[in-house]
Design a protein that fits this description.
149 residues, Cyt_c_prime_subgr, Cytochrome c, electron transport, iron, Cyt_c_prime
C-alpha cells in the first residue's frame, strides 16, 4: 500500500504536466487561428475577394490589436511542447532556446498591429500597407520559430 501511494504521488505531477502541455499547444493553436481569421478578412478585402466594408475591416484590425496585447509568451514556454517533442506542435525548439528573441518577435507583431484599426479605414487601398506590415512580422517569426509546412 505504501508503494502505491508513493507511485501515485510521483506520477501526479507528470499527469498534471502532460495536461499543461496539451493546454499550451491547444492555446497556441487557438491564438494563431484567431489571428489567421482576422488576417483572412483583411486579406480578402484587400484582394477584392470580399467587398470592402470599413466597419468590418476596422473590427478585424481591432481584434488583431487586442490579440497582440494578449500575453501569449507563457504558452510558448512549456517544456515538452516543441515540434521535436510532439507532432501536434509546429513550434520549433528555437522558441524555447531563445525566449528573448521569440518575445521580441511577439513585440514586433504587437507594434505592427498598433494603430491598424484606424489605418484600415478610408477605402480598400488602405488595407494593403497594414497587411504588409503585419504579414512581415508574421513571416519573420514563422521563419525562425515555426516548423515549415
Amino acid at each position: 500500500m505504501k508503494y502505491a501511494v508513493i507511485a501515485t504521488a510521483l506520477a501526479a505531477p507528470t499527469a498534471i504536466f502532460a495536461q499543461d502541455a496539451e493546454d499550451a499547444i491547444e492555446g497556441r493553436q487557438g491564438y494563431m487561428s484567431l489571428i489567421s481569421i482576422e488576417m483572412g478578412k483583411l486579406s480578402g478585402m484587400a484582394k477584392g475577394e470580399i467587398d470592402y466594408d470599413e466597419a468590418a475591416a476596422a473590427a478585424a484590425a481591432a481584434n488583431l490589436e487586442a490579440l497582440t496585447n494578449y500575453n501569449v509568451a507563457p504558452l510558448f514556454a512549456v517544456p515538452g511542447t516543441s515540434s521535436e517533442d510532439t507532432s501536434e506542435s509546429a513550434t520549433l525548439p528555437a522558441a524555447f532556446e531563445n525566449p528573448e528573441g521569440f518575445s521580441a518577435k511577439l513585440a514586433d507583431l504587437k507594434n505592427a498591429a498598433a494603430g491598424s484599426q484606424a489605418a484600415v479605414t478610408g477605402g480598400q487601398a488602405s488595407i494593403g500597407p497594414v497587411l504588409q506590415q503585419l504579414g512581415g512580422t508574421c513571416k519573420a517569426c514563422h521563419d525562425d520559430y515555426r516548423k515549415p509546412r
